[in-house]
Each structure stands twice: as structure tokens, then as C-alpha cells.
Amino acid sequence: MTNSQSRGTALITGASSGIGAVYADRLARRGYDLILVARNTDKLQAVARRVSNETGRAVNAMTADLNNAADLRRIEDVLGRNATIALLVNNAGFGAATPLLQSDVGKIEEMIGINVTALTRLTYAAAPAFVERGTGAIINIASIVAIGPEILNGAYGATKAYVLALTQSLQHELSEKGIRIQAVLPGATATAFWDIPGVGGHHNLPGEIVMSVEDLVAAALAGFDAGEVVTIPPLQDGQEWTSYEAARRVLSGHLGNSHPAPRYLTSPKAV
Ligand code: NAP
């Protein structure tokens, strides 16, 4: 049990299992009180009880389906009103591993709803409140598929590319206002995420590419402590990201011009 002063409240989505549940434990040990969000009340309360018992921090569980508009508004409301909230971890999400031709578009739409729409609405609820208080942090759980859309289902990769781009834009817009922003890009991590068609569990992946959830969260928090905007735990040579990002920034400075590039100034082909 700890009676140390709270560092504020961290609201973590998808905290009933996997990466979110480990974030709950680690953030409580760092002195945060918690609001945990997910659909499965029993699992969520089990995480809340365990973390609270082991750390002495105040832990509240809020059952919510972030693909349900009324439930989502409830969580947005909490982010807007609860002035103790100092950290939002946008972690809830799921993926798809099958190619387009073998995928159910209804399930893909559901994935966009949670990975993109819910994450965006929660960010838009938290950011103005953080700016008003001049402090706060947002951690967005993206994925390595944000920069490797060919690895799994393309729409899944696109949802995570969105999360990465949104995070980078938030860094641009909000870092001067005292707000910390981080995108975490996990590679394959040993969670229930992989219990999906086309894979059937992380045990079916090559062991050498699967990271434990404990190592993943420890590395993500080390990246946060180091002030990184983008943290890629499995990337061994961090310079590769630095070079890639530098090239992107140079390119993005060359994208405004009233004239098409010379390579497009060809005479029209006769039809
Ligand atoms: P997980 O164990 O399946 O956890 C997913 C969490 O999201 C659960 O707590 C789940 O809780 C919650 N969730 C799912 N749909 C929800 C909904 N509609 N409303 C509210 N909560 C919902 O998988 P995980 O690996 O920890 O995934 C966490 C994040 O990491 C995801 O964004 C995923 O894309 C990302 N990620 C994972 C990996 C990996 O290899 N594991 C790699 C890269 C990125 P309920 O079922 O109780 O709602």
C-alpha cells in the first residue's frame, strides 16, 4: 500500500487485458490514480482490484463500449470535466490480419470506429482540458504497421498510420502549450490481440518476433521518460527512424508549388 501523493489520474482505454492492463499496473506504481475503460466489466474490475490492492492507488473501472456513441460520450465527458486527469492512454483497439478479399467490411468498419473515431474523440475531449490547465499527456498506442501497411490487413495498417499522423500533428500543435504527446509503435506483442482470423493466437507467430507485454510497456515508458514523440520498442537501431523522419520532413517541405513538376509536363497522347 502507498499513501504517497497522487501524480494525477491516468485514464486508460482497453485496460481489461494485454497492453492496457500492464500500463494500469505500471502507471499506478508510478503514483497515478486510474480510470480504466473497457467493455468486459468482470475483467476490468479484476484488473482494478488487483492494481488497487497492490499499489494503494484509487482505481475506478468504467464499463464502456467505445464503438457505442452514448458510451463514448460518457468517457469524453469524464475527460472534459475531471480536472485530476493528467494522462490519457488511447490503447483500446483491435486488428485484422486477413487481406481485403478475405475480410468482412463490417468488422473493418468496427475497427475504424475504435482505432480511429473513438481515439480521435477522446483526444479532442482531453486536449482542450489539458491546454486549459497548461499540463497533461496523451499516449497513443499505434503499431509498427503504421509504417508497414503491407504487414497485416491494409485497413488495420491505415488506422495505425492515422494514429501516428495525428500524434505528430498534435506534437506540432500542442507541445508549446505544455502538453506531452507520444505514439507507441509496438511490433508483435504476446496478447489476445492475435486471437483473430488468419493467425489464431500469438503462439502461432515466430517466437523471435514476439515481445512480452511487460517488456513492451517498460520500453514504451522508457521512451516516454526520454521525451520521445515516437517510440518503437522492437526497432533495434533508433537511427533508422531518425533518418526516415528527417527524410519525411525534407519531402514535406517540397510539396507546395503552383506548377506541376516537369516530369508531368508531357504533351497529351493522341487517343
Ligand atoms: P488485447 O489484449 O486484445 O486488448 C485490447 C483491449 O481493447 C481490451 O482491453 C479490450 O477490452 C479493449 N477493447 C476492444 N474493443 C473495445 C471497445 N469496443 N470498447 C472498449 N474497449 C475495447 O490486445 P492488446 O495487444 O493489448 O491491444 C492494445 C492495443 O495495442 C491495440 O490498439 C492494438 O492495436 C495495439 N497493438 C497491439 C499489438 C500486439 O501485437 N498485441 C501490436 C501493435 C499494436 P474489452 O474486450 O473488455 O472491451
Number of domains: 1
* Structure ligands: NADP nicotinamide-adenine-dinucleotide phosphate
CATH class: Alpha Beta
Order of strands, main sheet, comes to 3-2-1-4-5-6-7
Overall 3D geometry? globular
CATH superfamily: NAD(P)-binding Rossmann-like Domain
Strand count: 7
As for the CATH topology, it is Rossmann fold
Instruction: Determine the number of helices (DSSP H or I, runs of at least 4 residues).
Output: 7
Ends apart, CA distance between termini:
79 Å
Task: Round the Cα radius of gyration to an integer and report it.
Answer: 20 Å
Given helix and strand content, the structural type is alpha/beta
User: pLDDT below 50 for ≥5 consecutive residues: which ranges?
Assistant: none
Walk me through the structure.
With 271 residues, the protein is α/β, with parallel strands linked by helices. The protein has a single domain, classed as Rossmann fold (3-Layer(aba) Sandwich). Helices cover 44% and strands 13% of the residues. The chain has helices at residues 18-29, 41-55, 69-81, 105-133, 154-174, 213-225, 238-252; strands at 9-13, 33-38, 59-63, 85-90, 136-141, 179-184, 230-231. A 7-stranded parallel β-sheet has the order 3-2-1-4-5-6-7, with helices on both faces. Helix 1 packs parallel to helix 2 (41-55), helix 1 packs across helix 6 (213-225) and helix 3 packs parallel to helix 4. It is globular.
Write a brief structural summary:
This protein is of the alpha/beta class and 271 residues long.
